[in-house]
Amino acid sequence: MSGDPRIEPTMVKAPHGARTMEIEWADGHKSVLPHEILRGYCPCAVCQGHGGTIHFVPGGDLSLRDIQQVGNYALQFTWGDQHDTGIYSFRYLRSLCQCDACKPTFSPGSVP
């Protein structure tokens, strides 16, 4: 792991049929990530291109079908339309948090 408790998940919960995923972090923070945010900020090149700037891209099937861990640093999701090319680092997932404490500094790709 990274050694930074802000980006070390201790629990990931995404119940079948739900429209949010919850991540509890080693620093005690809990992120509730709506599927719309996860899918809209998919970091893959198909969704974001190669420009480096992350943009919200609406659309796509928001049913989360599968979650796979990628090494010790990321998660990969398979959506209902079989889109599965985004690899979401734990740092990136933390940056997508929409809670009241995080939202004022919301900036995909950065950790406060």
From TrEMBL:
InterPro entries named in the record: GBBH-like_N, GBBH-like_N_sf
Residues covered by the Gamma-butyrobetaine hydroxylase-like N-terminal domain: 17-94
Keywords from the UniProt entry: Iron, Metal-binding
Protein name: DUF971 domain-containing protein
